[in-house]
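Input (structure):
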């Protein structure tokens, strides 16, 4: 594969920005599994914008992305919302174990908040009833919930939805992001929320439009820096290959696309992972491994 997605271009630029201009944090909350403080270098206020209607699906090709796993997490937050670890694991979401607050849950967070306030059905009803209203905000940052139990505060916590003609646009606001594992250009967060935009669009009989992602603080962990340089090397190798082969015709530059095989007006709960198909996706290998800060 000798092309870049729009997400790849964003990611390359953002890696360089953090490595060149980032600042190191102090007294970090996260720890690695061995107990060592998980320091980061980061920048503030990163924004990326994609038009799904123009084929700009946000997925990174510099390493494989587990896109189905990301969408399954969206199901556990918005479609069958839960904070119970065993239920999340039954849905294929297996990485939340380290955030167990001691009762088999992640606290009154994410899916528990969506369920308590029926946020997703409220959004769908609002789009249908008053499409051009400007109050379509879905917030996982509910102070009552955050104070009720311990637990990780939501990272991707706010979506804002707007109808534009026959299109539905959405902005995702994220307070903090581990760029290389989840929040960067074409990473799991962008994949899963672009998929959510597609789902809500299909249910409300609109077309998915512009998806904008804002991250207030985006980081690279100190133990991820080698992988950051590896991704830059992969990008440079691809650039060199393109130059050596010469320009290719546009018909040969197939971009990855996520397809949702479901009829307009379907029920939100009817959509399954088998209704999604990723086409034209051939990422660079091998996969990179990242030690998480917990």
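Output (sequence):
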């Amino acid at each position: 594969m000798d092309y870049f997605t729009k997400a790849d271009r964003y990611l390359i630029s953002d890696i360089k920005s953090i490595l060149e201009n980032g600042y190191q944090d102090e007294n970090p909350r996260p720890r690695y599994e061995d107990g060592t403080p998980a320091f980061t270098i980061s920048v503030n206020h990163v924004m990326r914008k994609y038009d799904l209607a123009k084929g700009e699906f946000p997925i990174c090709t510099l390493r494989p992305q587990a896109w189905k796993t990301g969408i399954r997490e969206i199901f556990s937050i918005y479609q069958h919302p839960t904070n119970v670890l065993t239920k999340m694991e039954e849905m294929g979401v297996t990485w939340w174990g380290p955030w167990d607050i001691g009762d088999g849950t992640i606290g009154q967070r994410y899916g528990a908040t969506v369920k308590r306030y029926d946020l997703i059905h409220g959004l769908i009803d609002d789009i249908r009833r008053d499409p051009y209203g400007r109050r379509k905000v879905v917030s996982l940052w509910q102070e009552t919930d955050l104070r009720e139990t311990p637990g990780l505060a939501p990272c991707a916590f706010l979506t804002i939805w707007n109808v534009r003609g026959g299109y539905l646009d959405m902005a995702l606001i994220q307070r903090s992001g581990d760029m290389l594992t989840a929040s960067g250009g074409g990473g799991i967060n962008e994949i899963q929320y672009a998929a959510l935009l597609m789902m809500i669009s299909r249910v409300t009989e609109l077309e998915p439009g512009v998806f904008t992602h804002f991250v207030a603080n985006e980081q690279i962990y100190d133990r991820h820096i080698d992988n950051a340089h590896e991704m830059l090397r992969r990008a440079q190798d691809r650039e060199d290959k393109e130059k050596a082969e010469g320009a290719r015709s546009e018909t040969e530059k197939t971009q990855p696309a996520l397809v949702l095989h479901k009829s307009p007006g379907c029920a939100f709960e009817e959509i399954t992972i088998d209704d999604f198909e990723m086409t034209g996706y051939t990422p660079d290998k091998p996969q990179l491994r990242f030690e998480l800060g917990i």
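Notes: Residues 225-245 form the longest helix (21 residues). The longest strand covers residues 207-221.
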